[in-house]
């Protein structure tokens, strides 16, 4: 084949391929891939690899094209959890109190069972002043009509002690439990989803908010955040493009995009002596 024909066919092939901008423009190809697939996590909460310094308010707000639900859902991928986040304001913005989990109850029951409450109560009642007074009763109260010795009746039966121990166990478990109060929080327009379900260890009693509920007797321990659940959400961030030769910092245009960042929330509360950071 003539060399001129080969060059001509190569030229036509290049024109055909360049009909799609993403083929001829690698930067556009990377952008298309980014828009259609889930974003990689920028950093992890426990081990930050690429720390980002976010401004409290970005230089440019996300536009309507940046807020398309289907696009943002693709960026979130499997990190979107409807039980912890919402793209729109929840219809019922009511606080919900969730009691401690079954695992925490089982742990408290095991700890209370190790106290041997039945044995301690039996020992306390055996040396109580009521029993001492019964021993001081005259001899006529300890004999029947025929003069035979009569066995004294137990002041507190074994069944009563068991019931008392069970009630005391229930009281200790209830006193040591720390429920979580959940409410929806609006993070603002620079986050997506902007509504996050936040957990708190505070309790309301008669209109008064107790920020550190007491959970022990004697007092000293308080309900503080326990485990933290790390959510992955999108954060809008703007930064200036790389400078060109002879250009100043102000002349550089802004480049804004969504980043996937960790966001910790309190998922459980526990009774502890040290107050920890409340997410």
Automatic annotation (TrEMBL):
Biased segments, Basic and acidic residues type: 138-149
Organism expressing this protein natively: Lepeophtheirus salmonis
UniProt name for this protein: NOG
Keyword line: Developmental protein, Secreted, Signal
Organism classification: Eukaryota, Metazoa, Ecdysozoa, Arthropoda, Crustacea
GO biological process: dorsal/ventral pattern formation; negative regulation of BMP signaling pathway; negative regulation of cell differentiation
Region (Disordered): 128-149
Signal peptide (from-to): 1-21
Family of this protein: Belongs to the noggin family.
Coiled-coil positions: none
Localization (cell): Secreted
The keyword Mitochondrion is assigned to this record: no
């Amino acid at each position: 084949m003539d060399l001129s024909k080969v060059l001509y066919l190569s030229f036509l092939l290049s024109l055909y391929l360049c009909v799609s901008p993403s083929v001829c423009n690698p930067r556009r190809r990377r952008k298309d891939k980014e828009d259609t697939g889930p974003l990689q996590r920028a950093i992890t909460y426990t081990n930050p690899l690429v720390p980002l310094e976010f401004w409290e308010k970005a230089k440019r707000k996300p536009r309507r094209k940046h807020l398309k639900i289907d696009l943002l859902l693709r960026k979130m991928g499997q990190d979107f959890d409807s039980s912890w986040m919402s793209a729109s304001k929840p219809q019922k913005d009511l606080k919900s109190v969730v009691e401690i989990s079954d695992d925490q109850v089982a742990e408290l029951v095991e700890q209370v069972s190790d106290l041997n409450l039945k044995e301690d109560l039996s020992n306390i009642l055996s040396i109580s002043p009521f029993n001492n007074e019964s021993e001081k009763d005259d001899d006529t109260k300890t004999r029947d009509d025929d003069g035979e010795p009569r066995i004294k009746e137990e002041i507190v039966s074994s069944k009563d002690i068991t019931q008392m121990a069970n009630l005391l166990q229930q009281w200790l478990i209830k006193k040591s439990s720390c429920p979580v109060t959940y409410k929806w929080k609006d993070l603002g327009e620079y986050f997506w989803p902007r509504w996050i379900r936040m957990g708190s260890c505070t309790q309301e009693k008669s209109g008064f908010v107790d920020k550190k509920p007491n959970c022990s007797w004697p007092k000293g321990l308080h309900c503080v955040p326990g485990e933290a659940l790390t959510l992955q959400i999108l954060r809008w961030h703007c930064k200036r493009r790389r400078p060109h030769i002879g250009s100043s910092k102000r002349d550089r245009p802004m480049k804004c995009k969504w980043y996937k960042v960790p966001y910790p929330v309190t998922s459980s509360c526990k009774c502890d002596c040290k107050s920890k950071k409340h997410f």
